[in-house]
Design brief:
seven-stranded parallel beta sheet; alpha/beta; Rossmann fold; UDP-N-acetylmuramoyl-L-alanine:D-glutamate ligase; twelve-stranded mixed beta sheet; 38% helix
Length: 465
């Protein structure tokens, strides 16, 4: 059974392929599976229109020859432009099996679809100027562009671009397994739609995974509001953010959302607001989870509220201002899980607070904070990922760029906290919350507000039942 959600590093992918070869599958056979699987997706995009396949010297180029032959066999118009002669046996064999036309790098081609098989996921250095110019020229002369595995000029493990001027793509077809670049900025921004071609790779121990649609369940027939989970939301100096988070939480599964605030002003009628002493609210034995941070502020009162929230022996989500105030001492005596939801600036603040140098890729940085702090870390942004202290790592699909508006982070915190309050594990709650947040954005019309996003959360959850 293919493992279609795992994300592999270049080293993990090579090891997985080596295991397939050791088990009796040849490199040529794997190339045929990968190339012909990719050709199915190219055919859907191109059909009988003109296709130019740009082939490099390595096995990614070999995949290109297989794709071109598969298109030719189906009656497609596939021409290969060879950037250089094949340098691997598998690439040479694939070229020998191609029955169509192979042109040199100086060919002046235009057409409907360019398939980029110049270099694959193993690239670690910038493209040579001659290759960069060839890719840019062909990219500009074709209407649509498809990348095979990862676009040429992308570092697979980090998502960094190895040079400028790289063309964007309408479709990227991953081979065998997802790579981190499919999910990480800046590379993912130029990949267009993502598709995966399985080649029989087995599950890799310790591999990251792509966050998929949760498998949610309706409440049991005998459920009541406390059994479904009571979430306490701690308000602060800017009450609107906490109200927004609480509204989002109401639609994400918790049976009861209670906001602690100084005033009931602006709160909707169906949101319970408690203006009593915070220590009394958070010692309610019925609490299932706590959210602290949205609109909290950073003054002495905010520090006190954070300390009280983290003293409660239930799972806690720490967001926004609370992340800036958070210090190792706050977590020293905690046994219950904590989920932190930092954006990039807050992630840097956490790195400083826990004595980390901030080195490495985005996944490596998030994992370092998770291990140093003991928290599940949701590193949010256009390339959101979830990291756990035990090394679990999950990446979200590229989200809607319309999420770049004020208040959407408060909505995310509320959704994650609501999932946590239902009683599921912290890492799972974080992943489910991230997915529901992205799906709610997909269901919104463009230029939505954070309030409109929160209103779509129930519909996102309904799609998981």
């Amino acid at each position: 059974m293919p493992h279609t959600d795992q994300i592999l590093t270049v080293a993990q992918m090579r090891a997985a392929e080596a295991l397939l070869v050791a088990a009796g599958t040849s490199v040529d056979a794997l190339m045929q599976v990968a190339g012909r699987g990719a050709a199915e997706w190219v055919w859907r995009l191109a059909g009988r229109h003109k296709v130019t396949v740009l082939c490099g010297p390595g096995n990614n180029g070999g995949d290109g020859y297989v794709i071109a032959e598969a298109l030719r066999e189906r009656g497609g118009q596939a021409v290969v432009v060879a950037a250089s002669e094949p340098a691997t046996d598998a690439c040479r064999n694939a070229r020998a099996l191609f029955g169509g036309e192979v042109l040199g790098a100086d060919a002046q081609m235009d057409g409907d679809v360019l398939v980029d098989c110049l270099f694959g996921s193993g690239l670690t250095r910038p493209l040579m100027p001659v290759h960069a110019a060839l890719l840019a020229r062909l990219g500009a002369s074709h209407t649509r562009r498809v990348a095979i595995d990862v676009p040429s000029g992308v570092q697979s493990d980090s998502g960094m671009l190895l040079g400028g001027g790289l063309p964007g793509h309408d479709l990227t077809i991953a081979l065998g397994a997802w790579k981190f670049a499919h999910f990480l900025m800046p590379a993912s921004a130029g990949m267009g739609t993502l598709r995966l071609v399985p080649i029989g790779v087995a599950a890799v121990e310790g591999a990251a995974r792509a966050i998929g649609r949760p498998q949610a369940k309706a409440p049991a027939p005998d459920s009541h509001k406390y059994r479904r989970g009571l979430l306490a939301v701690v308000g602060g100096a800017m009450p609107g953010a906490a109200i927004l988070a609480a509204i989002a939480a109401q639609g994400a599964g918790a049976g009861y959302v209670k906001l602690f605030a100084d005033s009931k002003r602006h709160a909707p009628a169906d949101l319970v607001v408690d203006t009593g002493a915070l220590a009394q609210v958070l010692t309610d034995h019925r609490n299932s989870a706590i959210l602290v941070g949205p609109g909290l502020g950073r003054d002495a009162t905010a520090r006190e509220r954070l300390a009280v929230a983290l003293a409660d022996p239930v799972p806690v989500v720490v967001d926004a201002d609370a992340l800036v105030l958070l210090a190792p001492r706050h977590l020293a005596e905690r046994a219950a899980p904590v989920i932190a939801t930092p954006h990039e600036g807050e992630l840097v603040a956490l790195e400083r607070a826990f004595g980390l140098d901030g080195a490495g890729t985005r996944p490596e940085r998030a994992l370092a904070v998770a291990r140093a702090s003991g928290m599940v870390v949701v590193a949010k942004g256009p390339d959101t990922l979830v990291a756990a202290p035990d090394g679990q790592l999950a990446c979200a699909a590229r989200g809607s760029s319309w999420l770049s508006t004020a208040g959407t982070g408060d909505v995310l915190a509320g959704v994650i906290a609501s999932r946590l309050a239902t009683g599921i594990a912290a890492f799972d709650a974080a992943c489910e919350g991230v997915w529901l947040h992205g799906e709610a954005a997909r269901l919104c019309a463009p230029a939505f507000t954070a309030g409109q996003l929160a209103a779509r959360v129930p519909a996102a959850l309904a799609g998981c039942l």
